[in-house]
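Bumping with the actual sequence this time:
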Amino acid sequence: MPASPFDFFDKNGYENHVCACFKDPICCLGAWCCTPCTVGKIKADLDDDKAFDLWSCLCWPIGAFRIRRRVNELYNKTESEDGSMCAIGCLPCCAISQDGHEVRV
């Protein structure tokens, strides 16, 4: 049975649900107040060189999707690509906060 595009509401291996973004208040505040900068910072945390990623910041929806897919790959999450697209499209700040929390933990 194919995965639902709304599977991002399940934990899928994440520590917290997508709507539990307030459990990491610093990342949540950054995602809500300055989404592009938070995406660039999370991308930098995922990369080995730790340099702020300006391209992910300038086109943050694509950058957020790529981060979400990379987090899924690196940390053995089970979310589908459709689920990642829906998470970024429907609840972008919550999804970014969820990914930021996973990268920082």
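The tokens above came from a reply further down the thread. The chain is about 60% helix and 0% strand.
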